[in-house]
Structure formats: C-alpha cells, structure tokens
TrEMBL record:
Repeat is among the record's keywords: no
EC number: 1.1.1.37
One Gene Ontology term from the biological process aspect of the record: tricarboxylic acid cycle
Biological source species: Demequina activiva
Residues annotated as binding NAD(+): 11-17, 105, 112, 129-131
Annotated signal sequence range: none
Taxonomy of the source species: Bacteria, Bacillati, Actinomycetota, Actinomycetes, Micrococcales
Reaction(s) the record says it catalyses: (S)-malate + NAD(+) = oxaloacetate + NADH + H(+)
Protein name: Malate dehydrogenase
C-alpha cells in the first residue's frame, strides 16, 4: 500500500521511545512495505528532546518514513491515528502512594482516551505500555466510548518474552523451540507466568523441566520481578526489551500469530477463565484477521487458578480505586 499508516507514540522522548521509534520507522512494526507517518506526543518539557529524536530519524533516511510531527497536544497527536503506542506515563515518585499514582495516570490516560475517541481512524489499535498499563488502558478505553473496547490492549509481551527466555535457558533449548507459554493477569509482580501448556521442541514443558519446585520457586518470581532486576543491574528500567515487545505485539495483532503458537495479551475480558468481564487482563491469545482471540479450553490446575485469582483481584482493586477517583 502507499497510504502511510499513522502511528502515534506518546512519551516519545523517553528511553522506550528512543528504542522504539527507529524500529517503527524502519518497517519492523507493520512490515517492510508499509509506509508510516509518525506523530510524537510529549509534554512541553519533552518537546526539545523529541525534536532531537526526530532529527535523528531524519538522518536515518528511512525510505518508509513518510513524515514526523511532534505535538504537546493529545487531540492533534491522535488525529487520524491507526496505531497508538501509549508509552508516556507518570512514574511513581518518592513517597507516592499507589492511589496517587493511579490518579496521576488517570489524568493522562483519560484525556488521551478522549482524544482517541475524537480523532482516531476506524481501524485504530491502541497498545498501552505506560504503567500501571492494564488500568491505564481501562481508563483510556472508558474515555473512548465510540472505539470498540477490544482495540485497547496493555502490553504483556515483555513478560511473555522473559518467560520464553528463562524457560529456554533452564532447559538448554533455543527460544524458537519454546511454544505456548502464557502470562495471566496484571503486568505487575503479581502476574501469573504459566508453563503448564507450554511445549519445548514438541514435548510438554513441565516434563522437560522435570522440576516443579523450580517453576514455583525460581521461574515465576524471576519472570515477575525481572523489571526490578533490570533496574538493579542497568541503573535504568527496561527500554530496548520493552520497545521490542511493543513492536512484536502490534506486529502480531495486525499480521497474525504463527500457527501452533500463541502469545500473551492484556485485553478486555469477556469472562473467559472466570476473569470478570471488562477487566483488561492478560490471556494466552492468537491473532486472526487482525483481531485477538483468547485461547479457550485450557485446563487450569489449582495452583494456576490461585495465581490467576491473585492477579485478577489486584486488577479489580485498581479498577475500583480509579472508579472511586471518578476516572471510569
Ligand atoms: P521515561 O521516563 O524515559 O519516558 C517517559 C516519557 O513520557 C518522558 O519523556 C515524559 O516526558 C513523557 N510523558 C510523561 N507524561 C506524558 C504525557 N502526558 N504525554 C506524553 N508524554 C508524556 O520512561 P520509559 O522508560 O520510556 O518508560 C515509559 C513507561 O513504560 C513507564 O510508565 C514504565 O513504567 C513503562 N514500562 C512498561 C513496561 C511493560 O511491560 N508494560 C515495561 C517497561 C517500562 O517499565
């Protein structure tokens, strides 16, 4: 096609933005034959750095990059948007309570949702990366009543990829041999990484691992707390891996997931697996014809049930808190 796809990236001057924009512009988000127009959204303090990043994008002379606009106004940034990557968020400051964090982000994602509602293209797809991602996505969606709720996702792909990597390392396999890992629930330390249905080179993963204590005592906490471990090691939070996950999420949403495998996506629950309808919770999912479908019919053992319930309860608490703030 020759009509450029409009991709809006918020928090464009941040570290994930810096790792993300060049990959979008090079064609990795939507395909090597799809031109993109980039809309960068920043707060006023971030505008100058965003302009610098735009200069570097120019200097790459990407053949697919059809233009870059930089905005500090959400309505302009989301006008005509086809794909929105909502990365910019309010980080937790010193002494900030969880409630303050939810409220501060509500003040960002509510107006952005309204701007999406007003200006987005009919096929718009929104991926929320900025934390607390699931609840921020819920807030944005609630402010975009004319956009189908299923077009609002929160990113679990980084957690999913972390699980693939840990499982491959433990079993001496290549990540390409690991299929059907799942992350359930919230993108938080209470997520539930699940290998019960996973296979490694076609064999059941639990059998290949052969050590159920490793799964509960090492694998699950390592995946769930990986973000903190990266901060500890790098002195900064995950950026390139987060950008990579965002690229893969949107790529698969648009182009489909490979036959025989699935990924993990936080999307509005339809009540599957006992997750209350409407919560933006992570499920194993496949993409067909540009839409996510939750993988159905998986047996959920008691330990998984308990893990999923804990994570979903946290999402329900977050929803109730932002409802109380009048953000839903
Ligand atoms: P940075 O602090 O480097 O960048 C954030 C950028 O957002 C800044 O440039 C800031 O000016 C901008 N911003 C703030 N409010 C904005 C608004 N209202 N509109 C537009 N831009 C705004 O953070 P970075 O490391 O890039 O992380 C961004 C977000 O991703 C954080 O909320 C972080 O917690 C979250 N993450 C989510 C992950 C996930 O798996 N879902 C993993 C990585 C990351 O931790």
């Amino acid at each position: 096609s020759t009509t450029p796809v409009t991709v809006t990236v918020t928090g464009a001057a941040g570290q994930i933005g810096y790792a993300l924009l060049f990959r979008i512009a090079s064609g990795q988000l939507l395909g090597a034959d799809v031109p993109v127009k980039l809309n960068l959204l920043e707060i006023p303090q971030g505008m100058k750095a965003a302009e610098g990043t735009a200069m570097e994008l120019d200097d790459c002379a990407f053949p697919l990059l059809a233009g870059i606009d930089i905005h500090d106004d959400a309505a302009a940034a989301f006008d005509g948007v086809n794909v929105g990557l909502l990365v910019g968020a309010r980080p937790r400051g010193a002494g900030m309570e969880r409630g303050d964090l939810l409220a501060a982000n509500g003040g960002i994602f509510g107006p952005q949702g309204a701007a999406i509602n007003a200006g987005a293209a009919d096929d718009v797809r929104i991926l929320v990366v900025g934390n607390p991602a699931n609840t921020n996505a819920l807030i944005a969606s609630a402010h975009a009543p004319d956009v189908p709720a299923e077009r609002f996702n929160a990113m679990m792909r980084l957690d999913h990829n972390r699980a693939l990597a840990q499982l491959a390392a433990k079993t001496g396999s290549s990540v390409a041999e690991v299929k059907r890992v799942a992350i359930w629930g919230n993108h938080s330390a209470k997520q539930y990484p699940d290998i019960a249905h996973a296979t490694i080179a076609g064999r059941p993963a639990p059998e290949v691992v052969g050590d159920s204590a490793w799964v509960t005592d090492t694998f699950i906490p390592t995946v769930a707390k990986r973000g903190a471990a990266i901060i500890e090691a790098r002195g900064a939070s995950s950026a390139a891996s987060a950008a990579n996950a965002a690229i893969e999420h949107v790529h698969d949403w648009v182009n489909g997931t490979p036959e025989g495998d699935w990924t993990s996506v936080a999307m509005p629950s339809d009540g599957s697996y006992g997750v209350p309808e409407g919560l933006i919770s992570s499920f194993p999912a496949v993409s067909r014809d540009g839409r996510w479908e939750i993988v159905q019919g998986l047996d959920i053992a008691a330990d998984a049930r308990a893990g999923i319930d804990v994570s979903v309860a946290e999402l329900a608490e977050e929803r109730d808190a932002v409802k109380e703030f009048g953000l839903l």
